[in-house]
């Protein structure tokens, strides 16, 4: 009898344990929106993340969007309009219990806080309140915003938070508006079974463009087709370690006619992409989609390359290898993140900015930036919960720390400096 009881107790413990593991797996799968093989791998790799997500689900904390503080201050603490690029600063991120968007004036004043909460934008797709991420956001002159509900779709809403359209094209990471206004974003991943390339099923993102007025998909570029067409299948032969996300496409830019003459080897319409898992940048021919240029070597885990008017390609070289939260890890084994300028004509690169003792700079896993017309850099140091503008001499002329509580900061995911009249809508009423 005692034995039976013991067996029953053991069975109950087993069932509870399995149920708990399945629950945690389900929670993780839901939050990540990933295919099962990757989920399982990540579950094994990410017990710390599971714990933080469980806390987010049950203790009402958006832990997926928080980092431990590195900077003690809060809000805009430096604003030097005379040395800043003119305009208003648009950011997305976690503000209190809301995932949303804010606009700041040059003097540091908060001009607008969109009455929208990305944690509530698509409740039918959410596993719990904090099951969302903004990754890619653009501001329009009338206060409209288009943003990615990361991995699910793109949404456009007005200054009053009214949704104009939302698609379900699984866009993620970034949104770029070309000179005709068409929106470009990474989509996917898409599963491939191609024995000529690999003897495993593998997954690769795609490039897609969208109508800014309706959200309808206008075109799609298959990167695997581009690789095959370019006779460069060697680029993904080392895919087995990351077969469920072979390239991790995290940015797309289309070369505008306005600056194309600065790039003698490229043409207007050519497409620049950042492939984080390959640690490479590619430029695809805008018509044939063949790969016509590759940069490999200068960057690790990079984000947000841009075609610049001086004929270079700028890029945020994240240089991960330690957590920003590691007490002895900051700012990473490589000395922090940096902004590079790569000359595609000769393959050389130089550092435009890296942190120093006066201004550390390290965002190992995320981040965006903009090279401003006056030569300054506007940087979203996402994993540190900070955004700042720095001059070529290294002087910080604007700084914003997105404090969440005494110990944590909220991620600042996207950033952009827009002409000052993009803030004009902010005085209008929504009623
Ligand atoms: Ca970019």
Arithmetic mean of pLDDT:
88
CATH class of the largest domain: Mainly Beta
| CATH fold annotation of the largest domain | Methylamine Dehydrogenase, Chain H
SS-derived structural category: alpha+beta
Q: Which descriptor suits the 3D outline? A: globular
Strand order of the largest sheet: 2-25-24-23-22
- Per DSSP E runs of 2 or more residues, the count of β-strands stands at 27
The hetero compounds bound to this protein are: calcium ion
Low-confidence stretches: 1-16, 25-45
N/C terminus separation: 72 Å
Rg:
22 Å
Q: Specify the CATH architecture of the largest domain.
A: 7 Propeller
Largest sheet: 5 strands, antiparallel
Helix content: 10-25%
Number of helices: 4
Please, what is the CATH homologous superfamily of the largest domain?
YVTN repeat-like/Quinoprotein amine dehydrogenase
Model description:
The chain folds into two domains: about 1-60, no CATH class; about 70-425, YVTN repeat-like/Quinoprotein amine dehydrogenase (Methylamine Dehydrogenase, Chain H, 7 Propeller), CATH 2.130.10.10. The relative contact order is 0.14. It is of the alpha+beta class and about 425 residues long. Helix 1 packs across helix 2 (about 35-45) and helix 1 packs across helix 3. It has helices spanning about 1-30, 35-45, 45-60, 225-230; strands spanning about 65-70, 75-80, 90-95, 100-105, 110-115, 135-140, 145-150, 155, 165, 175, 185-190, 200-210, 215-220, 250-255, 270-275, 280-285, 290-295, 305, 315, 340, 350-355, 370, 375-380, 385-390, 395-400, 410, 410-420. The chain contains four helices and 27 strands. Helix content is about 15%, strand content about 35%. Calcium ion (CA) binds near residues 251, 304, 305 and 306. Calcium ion binds near residues 251, 305 and 306. Keywords: Membrane, Transmembrane, Transmembrane helix. This is Arylsulfotransferase family protein. It holds the Pfam family Arylsulfotran_2.
